[in-house]
Amino acid sequence: MLLYCNMTWFFIALGAPFLWALVNIADQYLISKYSDRAKEHSSGGLVLFSSLIGIFIAVFIYIFVDNVFIVSNKDILILGLTGLMTVIWIILYLYALEIEEVSSVAPWFLTVPMFGYLFGYIFLGETLSLNQIIGGIIIVAGIILLSIDFSKEKKRIKHKPIIYMLIACVLVALSGILFKYVTIENNFWVSSFWEYAGLGLTGLVIYIFVPKYRREFMHMNNTGGRKIFFVNTLSELATISGNLMTNFALLLAPVTMVYLVGSFQPAIVLGLTLLGTRFLPNIVKENLSRRVLIPKIVAIIVMILGSIFLFV
Questions:
Q1: What stretches in the chain show pLDDT beneath 70?
Q2: Which DSSP string corresponds to 232-285?
Q3: CA distance 262 to 264
Q4: What is the C-alpha separation between 297 and 134, in angstroms, rounded?
Q5: What's the pTM value of the predicted model, to 2 decimals?
């Protein structure tokens, strides 16, 4: 029975990064199919599909959760700000996917806990353990290796994905800290209502005041609106389901073990993209040349090792 319980938490915890990996691949698919790959920054309109879904989720929460308006104005402002941060990091993440394979973009999210520890040290007075410092250094080393373009004879650092994902991961970590800060005082679903409301409101503001994104949104809506909305809805459900699976696994196993399992997401993404390239090339494609694939595998292994130091 004990062994069964142990295996149960592992498979539940593993389900979360698997779902998140599917979301990463779905994002890459939408960009490859509906954005103008020859034109940089042409996928920003996709963020409107993601952000406007926030309105529907907020309404859904409002229907089933009581007292969503019994929140201080300060907390509403903070949660609305997390919604704004979410829109910004999604845009940067989409821009990175325009110019880089998803298997090279997804590993960047392993830096989020590192930034979380760093913000805790700066703003909350928390201390950093030796393992956390070593883990952070190892993860940075993996990121540097991942950011080198091995496809050409002359190696070079791919600067744009670094800038996009560095800012995106900082915003993910910061919004997570702000959400946790407010949710300590309030109900999780009440906080989620205001976060998704902020997400949806930001999307409306972008639609009204940013013509470029509005034009991209309308073009994408005309060429594949239903499919984009459907895929985004499934992605949002997968993301929420992954979060819930992680939270449930935390009830069955130590926090560090659950987070370690979650750090395998980049490896899962790489495995799925390799399978997709072989059997579903119309959905996802991966560069299978040895000079590109081997350094990427090494970089992901290094980052997972860094995560082990970070969480243990």
A1: 1-7, 36-39, 124, 153, 184-186, 255
A2: HHHHHHHHHHHHHHHHHHHHHS-HHHHHHHHTTHHHHHHHHHHHHHHH-TTT--
A3: 5
A4: 21
A5: 0.88
